[in-house]
């Protein structure tokens, strides 16, 4: 059963060294000593709820990348995997399918002629490219002071910032965002000095992404619900690019499957 808010009345001056009492409903709670210290708990001006005190580290705006530090509350920021890395994994999905599904089917139908190999390899190439696109090229995250939208391989998650939103950095560089009604996990590829591909605009490490999302959540408190979450629709497959990849890879897949089946 959900907790029901109960009206409370504070008596006294809530400052260190002063005495205070509080009445919750019909019950009066008396102090055992003066106030020792205070905790500043911000209020969500949209819902009227106190934002919970968490152990999340405070966000230092100076440590944020300029694109996040200088962004207006309503400006939409985005994060996604580097396009070169995403395309590399997308193309890699084809040989993975050929080495598993293709080789298994070929072993059942062996020996294969060229037409039979094409009947297996050509559709598997198309399926592999589509799976790669959906897994690596489709996903992206965008957010502002109103909330976030996470386009995942299978669904679209929309979260509005509230008093109960939490941003946690997970092991391996990922970032998890939790809310009462939804949760999502965003992968962030760690950047190292040994990486050959330079960082792309909008690409962040796990720590940078977590801080950017926490900063946007802090902005949400200041703008008092005046900003709506990003209005984003899932991207459609780049038919032309996938078709070009299929035209190039399909003949190679037929040759490779013929060679594997002949072993």
TrEMBL record:
Keywords of the record: Membrane, Transmembrane, Transmembrane helix
Transmembrane region(s): 86-109, 115-133, 239-261
Protein name as annotated: PH domain-containing protein
Species of provenance: Plantactinospora alkalitolerans
